[in-house]
Amino acid sequence: MKPETRLRYAQRMAPVLEWLPNSGLEPADFPMFEQYLNDPRSTPAAQLQTRICLPVK
Length: 57
Prior knowledge:
The chain has 57 residues and is of the alpha+beta class. The chain has one domain. The protein contains one helix and two strands; from the N terminus they run αββ. A two-stranded antiparallel sheet has the order 1-2. The radius of gyration is 13 Å and the shape is globular.
């Protein structure tokens, strides 16, 4: 993974990783996944939307 790709990923994940410890929840034994709400091939970067899904227990 390119360094700039890692940085963008870390920036997207920061809110989730900050929220989780204080939520009273813990990650479930299931992989996290992302749902892309629009198409990056036809959507300007500033308008891209991604839903981050973290299964919890």
